[in-house]
Amino acid sequence: MKISKDLNYAINTQIGHELLASNIYINMAAYFNSLGLLRLSGMFFEQSDEEREHAEKFIHYLLEVEGEVAVPAIDKAHNEFKSVKEAFELALNWEKEVTSNINDLMSIAIEQKDYASQDFLRWFVSEQVEEEATMNHLLLLAEGLGDLSVFMLESFIPQK
Ligand SMILES: [Fe+2]
Ligand SMILES: [Fe+2]
Questions:
Q1: Domain assignment of residue 17, given as a range
Q2: Has residue 154 been placed in a domain?
Q3: Which end of the chain has fewer CB atoms within 10 angstroms, the N or the C?
Q4: Predicted confidence band at 150 (pLDDT cuts at 50, 70, 90)?
């Protein structure tokens, strides 16, 4: 095993967070779909896939360093949203929490002078900057437009 038990355990916990995020974003995608906001819904289905990919990145890393993969129980994903704005607020808060989880993992790797893990985790540090910026942008748009014109949001979501 080329990784400490502590960091291995913390990464397994993080795999659970990423999978929970994936489920939360599916619920948000379904909510947006139910409002007829199809582009936004598509964007959140994609976000959900990305979170699953994050979980898989951690899993493959553990396998590479001969660690132990143990996916934890996943909490029930939040699925009731009062408004589009509230969903964005939840998403932004969630991403902030994940940023702090990733920073905690990095702190363990630094403390243990585990340079390989620091290098691996650095990708997640930059990814979180992007993820927070995305959710913050959506929240700013929703706040600016107000609840009545939230449907205008659709025109700001890039079309694929
Ligand atoms: Fe993630
Ligand atoms: Fe994320």
A1: 5-73+81-147
A2: no
A3: C
A4: low
> Does 55 map to a domain?
yes
Sequence-distant (≥ 6) Cβ neighbours of residue 54 within 8 angstroms: 18, 21, 124, 127
Distance 95 CA to ligand 2 centre (A): 5
Q: How far is the CA of 56 from the centre of ligand 1 (A)?
A: 10
What angle (nearest 5°) sits at the alpha carbon of residue 55, between those of residues 65 and 17? Answer: 115
For residue 92, which ligand has an atom nearest its CA?
2
- The answer as to whether 160 is a domain residue is no
CA of 32 to the centre of ligand 2 (A): 18
| 3-state SS, residue 136 | helix
C-alpha 54 to ligand 1 mean position (Å): 5
Structure confidence by residue, pLDDT tens digits, 76-131: 999 999 999 999 999 999 999 999 999 999 999 999 999 999 999 999 999 999 99
